[in-house]
Request: fold
Amino acid sequence: MNMISVEDVTFAMEGSDTNIIDGVSFKINKGEFVSIVGPSGCGKSTILRIIAGLIPPSSGRVRVMGRGIEGPSKKLSFVFQDFALLPWLTNIENVKIGLNLSELSEDEKDKKASELLDRFGLSGFETYYPNVLSGGMKQRVGIARAVASDPQILLMDEPFSSLDELTAETLRSDIVYMLENKNISVNSVIMVTHNVEEAVQLSDKIIVLSNKPTKVKKILSIKTGRPRDKRAASFMETMDLVYAELAK
Amino acid sequence: MDLLGILAQLVLDASASWLRMFIALGISVALGFGIGVLAATSRNAERVLLPVVDVLQTIPILAFFPFAIFVFVVILPGYIGINAAVIFLIITSMIWNIIFGVYESVKTLPNEFLEVARLYHFDLWTKLRGIYMPASFPRMVEQSMLSWSIGLFYLVTSEIFSIGNLRYSVTYGIGSGLVGLAAQGIGNYLLGLAVFIVFVIGTRLLFFKPLEDYSTRYTRLHAKPGMRSYEKALMDIIGMGMKTRYAKRIGVVAKDIRVLRKGTTGTAIRTVPVAPKPSQDMGRIAYSAIGLVALAAAAYIIVTNPTLLGYEKLVIPALGASFIRVWGAFAVISAISVPVCVYFIFISKRSQHYLLLFQILASIPATVLLPLIAQSLHGNGELVAFAVFMLSGIWYMIFGMAASTRTIPQSVFEVKRLFGVKGIYAWRKVYLKALLPGFITGAITGIAAEWNASIVAEYFTTSGISASASGSAVISSVGTGIGKLLDTSILPGGLGLGLMIIALLNIVVMILLLNTFVWRKAYRNVAKAYG
Reply:
């Protein structure tokens, strides 16, 4: 089943005729982990924001589970590169922002938010402000907020690039765990990244974008099951393939 | 005089005033840059300069104007003296925020820039030209615009003040020109006001707008979120971005993530700075002790000296009355400025247009509007004073809040949209909290501006000038107030310099106490959460 279909999406800055994004199309199926890679400044994050309904495309459309979108939807959630925690809210209040549109009572929201923080190893930090947390912990709060509303699709904009490598590795396995666990609502992930190794390690599909204008250059499928051995010959081959596409 | 004659006279007046303004701005920027860089780069200079500048910017400098005129006129001949006094006064209003702007820009400069400078043996000039200037340029432009608005208030006010004494009066000036026109009738006055506003808008568009546009080419590199893309761009230029990452990582990452997870979960909390270092603590205690001893000594001298005690009996009720006016106006300002800011910063799609409009409006000093205010309030002294207080303080609140929200990353607002945060919930959890730090800084500077205004507002409602300055309406006097007291003390037959000094000391002590026990505390509490 198509979770998301991006259909001939173009995007131009307000007041400009030149399309920064020029006719991008791809589909994402249920259960897939998809990475978008491409040169910096090619509009990867913009595409992700168009899918999230945060920015309207100049033309073309995005369908989420068969339906066109107008603005943010509860089916999707977003993980930010800079975490985007509201600095003036405590960690639990930040997670509760994710529950804003839910029907739960205030008490139930509190309960669910603290369960989520607990699941991400943050119990005890509920009433702290984000500024006392390390980068990795902040991003855990960000992920807890993103999955709080039980979204089916998780959009991630370079979620691990401002974290140290060890923390990033841990969080990557958290995301894969969520994707593969049937008890958790998330069943598809789109991740924008400039880290090719990370893309090869996690993805079922890698979408390689070109720059100026941005188009889909190639969509690579990876069939190997996760977790993947980074020193395996096939892993290296795939990485070389992606680099070759990027360099073309 | 015919219309053309009046217009020509007005343009001449305004040009003379603007010349004073540009001289003052030039000196303020040059001095402000020097002092700001010095304070940011030398620990010793920082220790001395920051507290001094901090105190100077919050005391009502206007109160010293009569003294300044006296000094400059004695030193310098005739019109040079009075002009020097006016320019000096404008500088004292312009320079403080420029110093802080430069200081903050240099202080927050990424260390790498300074390391580059050391690596390549930059001399002082290269460092100033290549690093400190570009780094502080955007803030200097931004602060200069604010300074310009503040300066206009002082310009007009000091020009009007100078009329009070024929010997020292400035010959050409838009402030004195307007007072003259107001005496001739409301029509001529409105024409003068229009010329003034044209000059304000012209300066904003022809002088500051180009500077502002020019400065954005620095901000793109300097802004915090931009740093990452700057690094990335640099990596791309070198052409090894992804490949280095790849090469570095092979063989480094441990295979078993499960092991790592145990290790990292929940242990990565940073220590929260709870107590300052002992040496800092000792310093603060020493400062407080010196302050308390000085205060006690001053109190002892005053209580044992009947003349001074007599002054004090005049000063304290006056200060109390002004205090009530200032804080009453502050309450009204808060009630207006907070919703206005929420609307134009967060809700409206035309924030930039509103900001420009507010900047222009803020450049019209309350003192210029005095005749209009007096007429519409039927010369009620208390109301006129209140209106002048409000007009003087409100822009600081609005710009303080606008400035503090600019550092909020765009993603925070995307979060708000993503999760459909709206209505009261958005006000409570996003808007009001986002404005809080700016509210506090705006309140500190806004209240300081109100105190300054009290000197003027109560002066106009007291002195004989009120009749001519307000056109036909005669403003009734306020009951009592520190401004009125200061003004009457220097008028012929007043109690003189002794009372003036005692009154000034009282103001300074009150403002220092409020800064220490109210504002600094409030700010520290907010900083704890906002990090």
Observations:
- Chain A touches chain B through 57 residues (CB under 8 Å).
- The domain at 1-73+151-158+177-248 of chain A is CATH 3.40.50.300 (Rossmann fold).
